[in-house]
């Protein structure tokens, strides 16, 4: 039930009480045919009796429409698909906890011209952040995510570095 917008005045309360009392006496005495029917109530109250709600502050103006529509975001550069600038931690497969043995099999080429790559495993990176190099594990790429080919190549290159012990010693 919506909230009431106005208060009932004492005069309206007494009118409705009197009309109810008259209807009850007519029913009790059985003189419904001889008695005049009660006058219909005026639903609209006089203007002076109505209490209106006045807001304390003026409503805010609606925001102006932008002059130019927002550009469509590149579907391959969402916040979940951006890679950190430095891939210096240990990248592992989250399911096994080991470095993938076949770096080329981690990504499948997708798209008409091979401009995208889809990750087949969930890759996490064990790295350190902050002044004291606090160790953390962060999600690098989720399984099934499509990346730009350049981002996938960066990850594959880092996986190859991790697998080659001679490159890691240099």
What's the topology here?
Elements: H1 10-29, E1 90-93, E2 107-110, E3 116-119, E4 123-129, E5 134-141, E6 146-148, H2 149-163, H3 165-169
Précis, in short:
The protein is α+β, with helices and mostly antiparallel strands and 170 residues long. It is built from three helices and six strands, in the order αββββββαα.
Give a verbal description of the structure.
With 170 residues, the protein is of the alpha+beta class. The chain has three helices and six strands, in the order αββββββαα. The strands form two sheets. The chain has a three-stranded antiparallel sheet. The protein is elongated and about 100 Å long.
Rg, nearest Å = 38 Å
How many beta-strand runs?
Answer: 6
| Overall form | elongated
Report on the biggest sheet.
3 strands, antiparallel
β content, as a range?
Answer: 15-25%
Uncertain parts: none
Summed up, the helix count is 3
Q: What structural class results from the helix and strand content?
A: alpha+beta
Sequence of secondary-structure elements: HEEEEEEHH
* Approximate helicity band: 10-25%
Lateral arrangement of strands in the main beta sheet: 1-4-5
| N-to-C span | 77 Å
Q: Summarize model confidence as the mean pLDDT.
A: 75
